[in-house]
Design a protein that fits this description.
Oligomer: heterodimer
Largest interface: A-B, 48 and 49 residues
Mean pLDDT of chain A: 95
Number of helices of chain B: 4
Order of helices and strands of chain B: HHHH
Radius of gyration of chain A: 19 Å
Distance between the termini of chain A: 58 Å
Mean pLDDT of chain B: 94
Number of strands of chain B: 0
Helix content of chain A: over 70%
Low-confidence stretches of chain B: none
Structural class of chain B: mainly alpha
Helix content of chain B: over 70%
Structural class of chain A: mainly alpha
Shape of chain B: flat
Order of helices and strands of chain A: HHHHHH
Chain lengths: 193, 89
């Protein structure tokens, strides 16, 4: 009977170092946006509270579920690579991609409803922030999906193995960042009052 | 079931879904004010931390990177809390 614990693995950063600097830069840009929203709101909370009620909270919450689930599939893809389970890598990347696609569809319906009601960036400060913040994030979802598409093609060619998963881990880290940003954005813009 | 929860990714996903439902519910009942904002920030912090540690897999990463991302979460939550506190005055 061996009661000794396995020796601790050396600490390692998943993926390439460069992607983490890129992620950090993106996160700092969003931190500025989030703080700008919160402080702009502090000048006029009544107006922000009033127009926040016109937002579709159900769509926002459902989109959180889609991004969280998309992120989960991509972790499973990375775990599959570490086990050299080739079919599971590509399958989980594809499922993550589809969650991203679902997010875009929900968001497009949301935008269509708002733009259809004649709302634009110039309507008021609240909508200016709502549209610019969510649209900036929307572009990041699209970039994340482009990355996932590349990872999917590569995975199908058997590029990722337990010995070489750096590219997959880098792309996965970016995709998780998109999820992380929405986790702050959703309560901040849709719910907090 | 035990097996499913032994994978940190499954556990994180499960908690993230529950936490999202709570935030959505707080919105439905029109929760507002200091208590509601603190509750939502704590939930967002817990969710963000799960993404950082179990999805980005920084739990076993060099401490600097883990602290940089967790620090971002603390910074953003504090700034939001400060701004909301100002708006309540």
């Amino acid at each position: 009977m061996n009661t000794l614990a396995a020796p601790p693995l050396p600490r390692r950063l998943p993926g390439d170092l460069a992607i983490w600097f890129f992620i950090l830069a993106e996160m700092l840009a969003f931190a500025v946006f989030f703080a700008s929203y919160a402080f702009a709101r502090a000048h006029n909370p009544e107006m922000f509270n009033l127009y926040q009620q016109t937002l579709d909270r159900n769509a926002g919450a459902f989109n959180t579920v889609l991004l969280v689930t998309g992120s989960w599939f991509v972790v499973l893809a990375v775990q599959a690579a570490h086990r050299d389970n080739q079919p599971a890598i590509a399958r989980n990347i594809l499922l993550g991609f589809l969650c991203g696609g679902g997010f875009l569809v929900v968001k497009i319906f949301e935008y269509a409803a708002k733009f259809g009601a004649g709302i634009s960036m110039s309507t008021n400060t609240f909508y200016m922030f709502y549209i610019s913040l969510t649209f900036f994030h929307f572009m990041h979802v699209i970039l994340g999906m482009v990355i996932l598409a590349v990872l999917w093609f590569q995975a199908r060619q058997g590029v990722y193995t337990s010995q070489s998963a750096n590219g997959l881990e880098s792309g996965a880290a970016y995709w998780h960042m998109v999820d992380l940003l929405w986790i702050i954005l959703f309560p901040l813009v849709y719910v907090m009052r | 079931m035990m097996n499913a929860l032994s994978n940190p990714a499954h556990r994180a996903w499960f908690v993230l879904l529950i936490a999202t439902t709570i935030t959505w519910y707080l919105g439905e009942v029109g929760a507002a004010g200091t208590g509601a904002i603190i509750a939502m920030l704590v939930i967002a912090f817990v969710k963000g931390r799960l993404v950082i540690l179990d999805f980005m897999e920084l739990r076993e990463a060099p401490l600097m990177w883990r602290l940089l991302l967790e620090g971002w979460l603390i910074l953003v939550s504090s700034l939001i809390l400060l701004a909301y506190w100002i708006s309540l005055k």
